[in-house]
């Protein structure tokens, strides 16, 4: 009986393979046909004003539901909630349905919802369009925002007047192939460190300006019974802030560094690379053990409690810290270089870039929404609430972060960081993205920095060779 | 006993059609949602499909398999994930089997409060991965969580779900969550054992261990087999806990998670590679099939030995 | 107490490992008993500890939690519950989970019985082949990718019917039903047919009650699977109104994950109805899970 069963099983597997050949091509063509038929019927109903779009926010007579997606960022979400209420009040026929997801889930949710034509205004990317494939790169995967544009799922906004409210660099960041596909609502710094000035004064030390000063400041702080640094170690990525600071300090030309890694002129385990990894290890040690249990969002309030000297965190954390802290603080570039003059640049990215679905049935509402948001006064409030460095030339940060960062930013010392510029070669191993290595040293994935640097370089080369 | 066609006893005419007619919805959905897509996976695996509509799909032959299994350090990571999938399966199957059996033996005795214990052990199973996972995320919170405190007392240190041993902590949670199910199946098996078998053996002066070895264990065969198969198949395909507990973390993922992450842009590189992911899931399929058949053969042999 | 205890009706059969009667065994019996209790208590601690920690956390304010994440709460901070309750639509999540579970499970079970019966009896051509198709499918990986394309092209992504559709299949369930039906004697069909009972009536009112244990098993296994599903909910449901508990909780975690007291309160609030439901249905769930599953 057993033999019989096995034989029928095998026969069946064979039949399976045959059916596979037949059915599969069936379902393939089915998916090609069905693609366009979806929602097109429902979209024509409100044939009101498709071209009057984008006027100055005073749009009236709009009717319908606008589906908006943004990523988690407490002050940003709060701002959008109240902005949505205002927008609904100004346009009584409009209902805004906003969904909030983790930043990690943004690609997934975009894929699903844009595919299903189930979203109107979406946060297309948390990294901007910088991550473009460079001429010297070969055999890499197309980044997802490019896939979406090439599939015609995003709307070209170039003709919309509100786009012009943003500065040139921001528009360029949202452009691809001659079109403007996203509005970068802000620049954010991911390489800075919050400093508790009162605590440093208590301990009797100055704000560190070089790596050596940071190291000795840390010692002094811990000797005095305080904690040196905390970060949101539980989420992993918040640890990158100090990491990116060190990376920027040692490799001020971040785009050049990416090219160097691709061409082989630079190696993670050459002299400077090893120096970087050595500092990564020191940085990992500086982080208080408590960090491992903190999420990204809770690290700021924790820093605000007052017994921690340094908070390597993104500038977006300024709001929660300001709300809760009862001490004087400032925000400086991570002092990772030996020369104070080299620690004068903030590195970061464009964040919360909004895009419009190409096939949205409510394009007029979507444009009115973005126009209202882009209104200089509204935008200025947004920037101040979220602590994004404004991408509208007229907006200004008038809060503590604005004051702290002004001296550096007025010099034009903001640069896009490596995270936005680097593209991993296909086939590279999981450790190839060496800028993140401080986290691995912190987590204990690697015992010592040299071992980590060698592994990173090997994993990268394995991809470059393929 | 392969079913051969039998005469329909319910008369002719409409009664002859009914079996077919009423069977169709079930079979139809199965083919449409289950078998069809499963087979299409194989086809997808030979394409560069992204899963984004309007992007043309082209054939790439065995490229996806080649990349998955042989290209660069990436393939090393994939094979590691494959190995981890197997380790997960073996550890979960064996340990959960053992703990479930011990639990069943314990609560099957005439002890006070055994119903409470039984409920307690089984309840996690019905809570679902979201609740199970979040509960343990709090319990294993590094930097001051309960387990961290306990480790501190013992002079040990761990980053738990953030550290290198995260994989093993997920196994712990997986077993915690599902051992109760194994226990319940065993209990049911024990209830079918006739008491006179024990009486007879006891009269012969058999000890507790001998009773277990000579009566309980052989009589449990159907339950043992059910558990064995369910554990193997279940653990090979289970990775939802990884999603909740660790996210897509280096050195932790199992193959099922790799498939999902590659297909739906969760790898951190934010690219959608459904063709590649399909190839990965075919590799997983072959693994499950081979192991499932081996397990089935093992179980069949056991059945013959004991029954 | 030297005789083997009689079997309690309706509950666990008293298979006491140390049951044998010799008088000298009583001290051994006591030792076994103490050992068993000790082991049970250790297990109980492992099973209860995470729940207790969760309850403690839910009763702390956030600053208190940061100072002492593990210990007993100082006061009873019930604000976490009310705040968490107002932040997310938990009743809706529960309702969704219930709808998905009940609708998909009943539809699946009814379709499966009508599928399993003719297969088990061989009343249709190719019954063996169909069954093999199900056996092989046990091992198939979830066909996530093409399935997604299928549902997408049917325009059913992010809809209740689309999500329910995904749960109308379950190979294990069908196999359990087929095996159980095989144990029902064919003579029954014959006599029913002689009595002039039609096919549909036979299956519905004669067969169904007879295979109730197997139906219970399939129902429970299938229902728990749907109730627990997270991946499909993540892929197919994008709107908050449609989230089941699992997805709702994880999204809540994504937004409020830094506030453990609130998150713990949310977890507890979604756990409570499940526990109550379970305690009410416990007997059916346990017997359901096992009655059809341990048959040879």
Structure description:
The complex is a heterotrimer of chains A (466), B (307) and C (296). Chain A has 2 domains: 56-188 and 350-397, Periplasmic binding protein-like II (D-Maltodextrin-Binding Protein, domain 2); 192-344 and 424-465, 3-Layer(aba) Sandwich (D-Maltodextrin-Binding Protein, domain 2), CATH 3.40.190. Chain A is 44% helix and 14% strand. Chain A has helices at residues 2-34, 74-90, 106-115, 144-150, 168-173, 197-203, 211-223, 240-250, 254-263, 271-286, 296-304, 318-324, 363-374, 376-386, 400-409, 418-421, 437-443, 449-465; strands at residues 64-71, 94-101, 121-125, 175-176, 179-180, 183-189, 192-196, 227-229, 308-312, 329-333, 346-356, 414-416. In chain A, helix 8 packs antiparallel against helix 10 (271-286) and helix 10 (271-286) packs across helix 18. The longest helix of chain A has 33 residues, at 2-34. Chain B is mainly α. Chain B has a single domain (63-306), classed as MetI-like (MetI-like fold), CATH 1.10.3720. Helix content of chain B is 72%, strand content 0%. Chain B contains 12 helices and no strands. The radius of gyration of chain B is 24 Å and the shape is globular. The model of chain B has no long low-confidence stretch (mean pLDDT 85). Helix content of chain C is 70%, strand content 0%. Chain C is built from 14 helices and no strands. In chain C, helix 4 (90-121) packs antiparallel against helix 5 (127-137), helix 8 runs antiparallel to helix 11 and helix 11 runs antiparallel to helix 14 (260-291). The longest helix of chain C is centred in the N-terminal third of the chain and has 34 residues, at 25-58.
């Amino acid at each position: 009986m057993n033999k019989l069963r096995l034989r029928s099983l095998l026969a069946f597997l064979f039949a399976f393979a045959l059916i596979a050949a037949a059915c599969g091509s069936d379902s393939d063509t089915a998916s090609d046909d069905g693609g366009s038929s979806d929602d097109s019927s429902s979209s024509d109903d409100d044939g009101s004003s498709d071209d009057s779009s984008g006027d100055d926010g005073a749009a009236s007579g709009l009717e319908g539901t606008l589906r908006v997606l943004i990523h988690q960022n407490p002050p940003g979400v709060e701002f959008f909630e109240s902005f949505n209420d205002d927008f609904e009040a100004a346009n009584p026929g409009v209902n805004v349905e906003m969904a909030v997801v983790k930043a990690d889930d943004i690609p997934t949710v975009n894929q699903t919802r844009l595919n299903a034509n189930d979203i109107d205004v979406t946060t297309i990317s948390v990294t901007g369009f910088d991550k473009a494939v460079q001429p010297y790169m070969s055999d890499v995967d197309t980044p997802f925002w490019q896939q979406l544009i090439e599939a015609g799922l995003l709307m070209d906004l170039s003709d919309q007047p509100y786009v012009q409210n943003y500065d040139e660099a921001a528009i360029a960041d949202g452009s691809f192939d001659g079109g403007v596909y996203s509005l970068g609502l802000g620049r954010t710094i991911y390489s800075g460190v919050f400093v508790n000035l009162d605590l440093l004064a208590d301990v009797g030390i100055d704000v560190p300006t070089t790596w050596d000063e940071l190291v000795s400041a840390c010692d002094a702080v811990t000797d005095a019974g305080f904690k040196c640094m905390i970060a949101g170690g539980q989420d992993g990525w918040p640890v990158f802030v100090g990491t990116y600071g060190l990376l920027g300090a040692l490799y001020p030309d971040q785009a050049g560094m990416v090219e160097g890694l691709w061409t082989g002129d630079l190696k993670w385990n050459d002299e400077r690379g090893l120096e970087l990894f050595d500092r990564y290890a020191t940085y990992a040690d500086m982080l208080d053990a408590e960090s491992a249990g903190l999420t990204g969002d809770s690290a700021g309030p924790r820093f605000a409690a007052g017994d921690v000297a340094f908070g390597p965190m993104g500038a977006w954390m300024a709001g929660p810290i300001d709300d809760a802290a009862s001490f004087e603080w400032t925000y400086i570039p991570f002092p990772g270089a030996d020369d104070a003059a080299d620690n004068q640049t903030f590195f970061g990215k464009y964040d919360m870039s909004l895009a419009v679905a190409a096939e949205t049935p409510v394009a007029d509402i979507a444009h009115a929404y973005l126009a209202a948001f882009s209104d200089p006064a509204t935008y200025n409030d947004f920037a101040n609430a979220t602590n994004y460095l404004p991408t509208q030339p007229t907006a200004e940060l008038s809060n503590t972060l604005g004051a702290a960062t002004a001296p550096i930013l007025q010099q034009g010392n903001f640069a896009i960081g490596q995270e936005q510029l680097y593209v991993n070669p296909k086939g590279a191993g999981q450790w190839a993205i060496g800028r993140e290595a401080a986290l691995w040293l912190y987590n204990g994935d690697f015992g010592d920095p040299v071992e980590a640097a060698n592994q990173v370089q090997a994993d990268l080369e394995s991809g470059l060779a393929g | 006993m392969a079913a051969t066609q039998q005469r329909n006893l319910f008369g002719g005419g409409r009664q002859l059609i009914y079996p077919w007619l009423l069977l169709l919805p079930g079979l139809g959905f199965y083919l449409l949602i289950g078998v069809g897509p499963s087979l299409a996976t194989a086809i997808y695996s030979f394409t560069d499909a992204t899963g984004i509509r309007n992007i043309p799909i082209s054939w790439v032959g065995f490229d996806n398999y080649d990349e998955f299994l042989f290209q660069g350090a990436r393939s090393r990571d994939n094979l590691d994930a494959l190995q981890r999938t197997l380790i997960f399966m073996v550890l979960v199957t064996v340990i959960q089997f053992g703990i479930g059996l011990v639990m069943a033996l314990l609560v099957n005795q005439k002890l006070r409060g055994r119903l409470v214990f039984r409920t307690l052990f089984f309840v996690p199973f019905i809570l679902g991965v979201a609740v199970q996972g979040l509960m343990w995320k709090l319990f294993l919170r590094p930097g001051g969580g309960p387990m961290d405190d306990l480790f501190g007392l013992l002079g040990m240190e761990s980053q738990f779900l953030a550290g290198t041993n995260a994989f093993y902590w997920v196994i712990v949670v997986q077993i915690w969550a599902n051992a109760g199910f194994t226990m319940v199946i065993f209990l049911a098996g024990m209830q079918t054992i006739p008491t006179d078998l024990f009486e007879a053996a006891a009269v012969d002066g058999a000890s507790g261990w001998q009773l277990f070895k000579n009566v309980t264990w052989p009589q449990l065969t159907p339950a043992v087999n059910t558990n064995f198969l369910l554990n193997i198949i279940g653990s090979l395909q289970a990775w939802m806990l990884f999603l909740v507990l660790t996210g897509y973390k280096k050195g932790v993922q199992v193959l099922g998670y790799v498939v999902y992450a590659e297909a739906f842009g969760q790898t951190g590189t934010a690219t959608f590679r459904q063709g590649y992911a399909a190839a990965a899931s075919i590799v997983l399929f072959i693994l499950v099939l081979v192991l499932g058949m081996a397990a089935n053969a093992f179980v069949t042999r056991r059945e013959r030995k004991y029954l | 107490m030297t005789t083997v205890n009689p079997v309690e009706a309706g509950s666990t059969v008293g298979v006491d490992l140390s049951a044998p009667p010799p008088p000298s065994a009583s001290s051994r019996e006591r030792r076994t008993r103490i050992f068993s209790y000790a082991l049970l208590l250790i297990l109980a601690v492992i099973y209860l500890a995470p729940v207790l920690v969760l309850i403690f956390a839910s009763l702390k304010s956030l600053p208190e939690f940061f100072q002492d994440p593990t210990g007993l709460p100082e006061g009873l901070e019930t604000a976490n519950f009310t705040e968490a309750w107002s932040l997310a639509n938990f009743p809706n999540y529960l309702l969704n989970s219930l709808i998905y579970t009940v609708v998909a499970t009943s539809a699946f079970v009814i379709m499966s019985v009508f599928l399993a019966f003719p297969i088990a009896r061989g009343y249709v051509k190719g019954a063996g082949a169909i069954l093999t198709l199900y056996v092989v499918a046990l091992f198939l990986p979830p066909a996530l990718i093409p399935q997604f394309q299928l549902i997408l092209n049917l325009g059913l992504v992010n809809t209740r019917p689309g999500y329910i559709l995904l749960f109308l299949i379950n190979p294990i369930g069908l196999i359990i039903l087929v095996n159980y039906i095989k144990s029902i004697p064919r003579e029954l069909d014959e006599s029913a047919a002689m009595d002039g009972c039609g096919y549909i009536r036979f299956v519905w009112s004669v067969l169904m009650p007879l295979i109730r244990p197997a139906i219970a098993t399939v129902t429970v296994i299938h229902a728990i699977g749907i109730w627990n599903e997270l991946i499909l909910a993540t892929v197919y449901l994008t709107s908050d109104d449609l989230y089941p508990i699992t997805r709702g909780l994880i999204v809540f975690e994504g937004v409020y994950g830094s506030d453990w007291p609130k998150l713990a309160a949310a977890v507890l609030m979604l756990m409570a109805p499940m526990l109550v439901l379970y305690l009410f249905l416990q007997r059916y769930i346990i017997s359901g899970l096992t009655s059809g599953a341990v048959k040879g």
